[in-house]
Amino acid sequence: MIDLSESIQVRIYKDINNASFPVVAQRSGLPCCLYLNAYLNSNHKSPLSKLKSKKGKSKQSPSFYTRKKYAYELKFLYCFFMQKNIDLVERVASGTFLSIEEIDDYIRACKFYVDTEDGSESGTVVSLTDKRIRDAIHATSNSQPEVSAHTFYQRLNRLKAYIEFLYVCHHYDKAETEQQISTDDQFNKFKLYISTAISSSRKDNTITKDPLESVIPSDKFFNLLEVIQEHSPNNPFKSSKLRNQIITQILVDTGVRVGAVLKLKVSDLVDDWDNPRFLLTRTPDDPTDTRRLPAANKTKALSVSIPHDLMKLIKLYIETVRKSTPNSHEHDFLFISEKGRTIGKPMSYNAMYKVIKTIGGCVGIALHPHLLRHKWNEIFENKAKAKGFSPDKIEDLRKYAMGWVEDSKMASVYNEFQLAVTVAEISSNNQSQSVPNLRDSK
Fold this sequence. Notes:
Blueprint: E1 8-14, E2 20-26, H1 34-40, H2 64-83, H3 88-94, H4 100-110, H5 130-139, H6 149-171, H7 178-201, H8 218-227, H9 241-254, H10 258-263, E3 269-270, E4 277-280, E5 302-305, H11 308-324, H12 349-363, H13 369-386, H14 391-402, H15 410-414, H16 416-434, H17 438-441
Antiparallel strand pairs: 1-2, 3-4, 4-5
C-alpha cells in the first residue's frame, strides 16, 4: 500500500490581501483535491445546518488557525481513503457513499496517531528511581499511542462535514426522482451512523490524566526559572538569551497564549511606573504581519499587567538588541529573529515554540507554551486563595486575566488541579475522623 502521508502536505499561502490560508497539497504544491480545498476554505455554512449560534448571532467563518486545524484533519481522511482506493467525491456524486465496514475502518484509524509504530526495542537495562519514573511520566505525557478523545471526535466530525459538503455540491435541491430519493436515503443513513459514532466518542476517552499531578513539578519549575536567566551558567542558548528570557517570563508571569506574545508590538507597551503593562489586541488579518503563519490572539482584547523588572528587561531589549538588528525598523512587532535569512523580521511561531521546547529539554520535561498557561493558573489560584478571595471572585478574576468571555467554561478546565487537591483534602479529613487513632488505643 502506498503511504500518502509524506507526499500530501498542508501548505500555507497568502492571498492578494496578505491573508493566510491553508491548502492540502501535493509535493508539487498543487491542491490534492479541488473539492477538499473548496470545503476547507469555504465559510462552512451548510444549508443543511442551523446557521444561528446559541446566542442567536450568525455563525462566523472559521479563523485561519481553525482552518489550519481542519486542513490536517482533512489530510488525514484524504490519505486514509485514497490508500484504500476510495474516491469520496466519486462515491458521493454517484450516490453510493460509504459502507458500514468502510466507516468502521475509518473510525478505528481515527483513534491512533498517523505514523505510530511500536518498533523501538532496547536491550539496555537501567536503574529507575522513583524520581526518574516521575520525570519519565512527565516527559512522555503527550506520547500515548492513542489520540485524545477530542482529536478522535474532530476527525469523525470532519468526515461528516466534508461528506455533507459534497452532498450539497452534487445533490442538494434536486428534483425528486427515484435515483435522488435513493441517494437522499443513503446520505441520511450515513449521517445517522457517523453521528452515533461522534456522540459516543465524547464518552470514550481512554486516556486518564491524574488531576492531582501538577502540570509542571515544583522542582522543575524552579529550575526553569533559574536556567532562563540571561547570565545563568545553565542557560541552554548560545545566542538570543535576553529575548528568550523575556518571552518565557511573559508566558510565566501573565498566562497569555503564545499567539499574544507573537502579536505583541512595541506600541502595545504602556510604561506606566504605577502599573507597567501591555495591551493585548485583536486585529485579524493584520496587513503589517508578513509571517506565513500570522500571529493571532484568540481571547478578547485586554490590558495585561507585568512586573517592573520585566518591563525594564523589555526596554533594554528594545534599546539594544532590537534597535541594532537590521530590518527591525520595518515593522512594530516586539520580538524579532536575530539571525539567518529572516534577521530583523517578526519572530515565527515555530521559533518561539522551539525556544520553550529547548528550555523544557534543559530541565527534563516535555514543555510547550500552553503548559506555562496552565502553570500560571495553578499559581494564580494559590495566590488568590491566600488573599482570601471567594471561589466566585477567583473565577471572575481568572476570566478577566485570561481574556475569556463572560460565559466561558474554560475556568473549570484550568482549575481541575485545584479542585482535585480540595477533594483530596476533604477526603483525607473524613478518613482521619472515621479511622480510629491506633496509637492512642494501645
